[in-house]
Write a structure and sequence with these properties.
Distance between the termini: 15 Å
Helix content: 55-70%
Strand content: under 5%
Radius of gyration: 13 Å
Mean pLDDT: 91
Low-confidence stretches: none
Number of strands: 0
Length: 58
Amino acid sequence: MPDDITFRDFTAGEKARIAVLTARMAKRGLAGDRVDLRDLQRRIERIEDAARRRKQQQ
């Protein structure tokens, strides 16, 4: 698929932000089963969308 993104499509800053957000999701996950992670997932999706848009412009 042409709109698939790979790890190299992210900038260094985006990679770092995704790593931090993933760590925060893991930390929240340790708190229990009933933890809401949707806000962090949406933030990661926005980063992915930005990378996808940038890739399509090339």
